[in-house]
Design brief:
The protein has 208 residues and is mainly alpha-helical. 54% of the residues lie in helices and 9% in strands. It has helices at residues 9-17, 19-22, 37-47, 55-64, 99-118, 139-157, 166-188, 192-207; strands spanning 28-33, 71-74, 86-90, 121-122, 128-129.
């Protein structure tokens, strides 16, 4: 297996700064390096001003993220399916990955989140999550569905020679975790609508 060299901080900033130009996507407004809370606050204020980002909210949002997380997509809660691009932030943990791995994380995973929010979230060939039905689902269910979709796409795009790489193992673990969350929610939710939608999603997922 080829060991790809890691990037310096300046090389990482350059890669992130030119990422959207290199990998254009209509669902993505911006890909920005956010190594700290201050940079994340600038991005959040620009794309999610409705939350009124004071210091307490910024700290809570930042600290809620896994310190190992490499990137995040800012999705406006009232813009699902309105064809409005989302912003993607890249954290300092990205320094531990090669350029090829960062393409996998950003283009093959985070872009899927942005595309789902730009359009609507596919459940199967007939059903989608839209602004007209998203309130009938828990935040946990919506998050699990979009994560399963993104991890599946990311894994499908990985080259065969990555089968023993940590990035692939992490993606498999993420897929399993959110898939299990959906199965658990289907068992415990009181909402028949949510039960049916999760069943439809999992059925379609396993057909592909």
């Amino acid at each position: 297996m080829v060991n790809h060299p890691r990037l310096s901080t300046s090389e990482l900033e350059q890669l992130v700064g030119s990422f959207l130009q290199t990998y254009p996507c209509q669902a993505v407004a911006e890909v920005t390096y956010c190594p700290n809370k201050e940079k994340m606050k600038e991005l959040a204020e620009k794309y999610l001003p409705i939350y009124g980002w004071n210091e307490e909210k910024v700290s809570a949002f930042w600290e809620k993220m896994d310190p190992r997380s490499v990137a995040f997509t800012l999705r406006h809660p009232y813009q699902l399916g309105l064809r409005i691009p989302s912003a993607i932030g890249v954290r300092s943990a990205a320094i531990s990955f090669s350029p090829e791995e960062l393409v996998s994380i950003i283009r093959d995973h985070e872009y899927i989140h942005a595309q789902d929010w730009f359009g609507t979230i596919p459940i199967n060939s007939r059903r989608r999550i839209t602004l007209s039905n998203d309130e009938r689902l828990s935040d946990k269910t919506i998050k699990a569905i979009i994560e399963v979709r993104a991890y599946k796409h990311q894994l499908q795009c990985m080259p065969q020679e990555w089968k023993d790489k940590n990035i692939r193992k992490a993606a498999i673990a993420g897929y399993i975790k959110f898939h299990s969350d959906l199965q658990q929610t289907r068992e415990i939710t009181d909402s028949n609508y949510e039960k049916r939608l999760i069943s439809d999603f999992l059925r379609a997922l396993h057909r592909k």
